[in-house]
Amino acid sequence: MVNVAQLRKLKNLPPQEPDFLRRQVDSYYIDRVAPWGGGHIMIGRAPGEDAVRLVSNDYLCMARHPEVISAQCEALEKGDSALLMAAVFLHGDNPQARFERQMAQWMHAESAVLSQSGWAANTGLIQSIAGPKVPCYIDMFAHASLWEGIRSAQASAHPFRHNAPEHLESLLRRHGPGVVIVDSVYSTSGSIAPLSDIVSVAERHGAVIVVDEAHSLGTHGPEGRGLVVELGLTSRVHFRTASLAKAFAGRAGIVTCSERIAEFLKYTANPAIFSSGLLPHELAGLEATLQVISRSEDRRRHLHRNADYLRAGLSDLGYNLELSEAQILGLEAGPELATMALRDALEARGVFGSVFCAPATPKNRSLIRFTVNSELSPAELDRVISVCAEIREEVDLASWPSTRRRRHPPLAAVANA
Ligand SMILES: Cc1ncc(COP(=O)(O)O)c(C=O)c1O
Predict the structure, then answer these.
(1) pLDDT in 10s for each residue of the chain, 417 residues
(2) Neighbour-count burial for 221-240, b at 16+ CB within 10 Å, e otherwise
(3) Ligand 1: which of 246, 251, 327 to mutate, judged by most atoms within 8 Å of the beta carbon?
(4) What stretch(es) of the chain map to CATH 3.40.640.10?
(5) What is the CATH number of domain 83-278?
(6) What phi, psi does 199 have (nearest 5°)?
(7) Which protein residues are within 6 Å of ligand 1, measured from CB?
(8) How buried is 19 (Cβ within 10 angstroms: 0-12 exposed, 13-18 middle, 19+ buried)?
(9) What is the pTM of this model?
(10) What does the DSSP assignment read for 155-170?
(11) Ligand 1 atom having least distance to the Cα of 122
(12) Ligand 1 pocket test: which of 114, 145, 211, 328 has the largest number of ligand atoms within 8 Å of its C-beta?
């Protein structure tokens, strides 16, 4: 007679889940996934060959750029021994230090510190600069990695209303100097932060400011240097961060800061100490990408032209894109079941966006994000617009909370009035 433990071993089954773990996982399947009536909301159908994909953050189509690929291949073939270790062990001049200097110079900053991802850059920065109980004033739509940094610093989060400098000011008055944290371009709606006003408020109250430029570095500003450079705020913003997995199409993150703080970050940010750094071919690819990006005015122009065209077309159809000012367009169906209906209607017609739901958005503000890139053709954009026109009744656009929130009626409605 075999007992249960022997049977598990015989059948190569994993160990039994203790109660606390079973409850935790049950709540995912029962409370989260079951109301979706099958699979996870993120999983729709697979795109076919001719699908229009509006999902990648490779805004300037850098991933396949021949100069980037050949720089990566050359580094791999050269076989420079990859130092598989955390960045804290890097000494002297090295490829990472060289790329950091290039990025700092390009972004008009004194110094830059590279990390493994935008997530690592943000969590490591906030964890290092905000001690326990330091007030952190964060836009309520700021990226989750910035919230995670506050959590790991055990600092106090004081969220302010999205893009509302006056609300930020009232919180600063109440809680005193601390760290003000915003994104330059918000990743679900494509809204742009009123950076000049936010910086002025932060300065008036002696606060430090962190701007996450993940969605503006490479795409905005002179030669793609970002919005802080474009607005002439470099000497007033203490820290800029960015994921280099967007326009740079790599796997890395960056923080700009003063030289003094750069050293402090390199030896205090947990991802720099406890997680391995980048590989030589990744650094070579990023260096080549920087060269290409800084002379990619045409790509930037195409990107913004494509985004403007799609935004105008969808807006005329009645979709509320009033928040979007950049290459991110959020079709906010609201409740998750409405977003699933939208996902299915789009995908059935060969248009693929990304589902954003809780925890990336508030529970009742889920949406499909369309991410525009510089190489989308006019025919592809027209196809997206005509699909969105065709599905309006099927997805019940008129009943979406975002449609009812719209301040300005679509132009077509004005013309027909
Ligand atoms: C605003 C913002 N910051 C940080 C990140 C994290 O970047 P990464 O994917 O490089 O970890 C993202 C990615 O989704 C983002 O949108």
Answers:
(1) 778 888 888 899 999 999 999 999 999 999 999 999 878 999 999 999 999 999 999 999 999 999 999 999 999 998 776 678 888 888 888 899 999 999 999 999 999 999 999 999 999 999 999 999 999 999 999 999 999 999 999 999 999 999 999 999 999 999 999 999 999 999 999 999 999 999 999 999 999 999 999 999 999 999 999 999 999 999 999 999 999 999 999 999 999 999 999 999 999 999 999 999 999 999 999 999 999 999 999 999 999 999 999 999 999 999 999 999 999 999 999 999 999 999 999 999 999 999 999 999 998 999 999 999 999 999 999 999 999 999 999 999 999 999 999 887 776 555 554
(2) beebbbbbbebebbeebbbb
(3) 246
(4) 83-278
(5) 3.40.640.10
(6) -65, -40
(7) 117-119, 122, 143, 145, 183, 187, 212, 214-215, 243, 245, 253
(8) exposed
(9) 0.95
(10) -EEEEE-TT-HHHHHH
(11) 4
(12) 145
Q: Which residues lie below 8 Å from residue 20, measured CB to CB, with a gap of 6+?
A: none
| Closest ligand 1 atom to Cα of 215 | 1
The CA 382 to ligand 1 mean position distance, Å, reads: 29
Amino acid sitting at position 164: A
Pairing of strands 354-356, 366-371: antiparallel
Residue with tokens 């409850």: 23
Sequence letter at residue 261 = I
Instruction: Report the run of H or E that residue 331 belongs to, with start and end.
Output: strand 328-334
Residues 99, 105 contacting (CB under 8 angstroms): no
Report, at the CATH architecture level, how domain 38-58+298-409 is classified: Alpha-Beta Complex (3.90)
User: Separation of 39 CA from ligand 1 center, angstroms?
Assistant: 26
CATH 3.90.1150.10 domain residues, the chain = 38-58+298-409
Residue 30 Cα, ligand 1 centroid: separation in angstroms? 29
140: how many CB neighbours lie within 10 A of its CB?
Answer: 14
Distance 118 CA to ligand 1 centre (A): 5
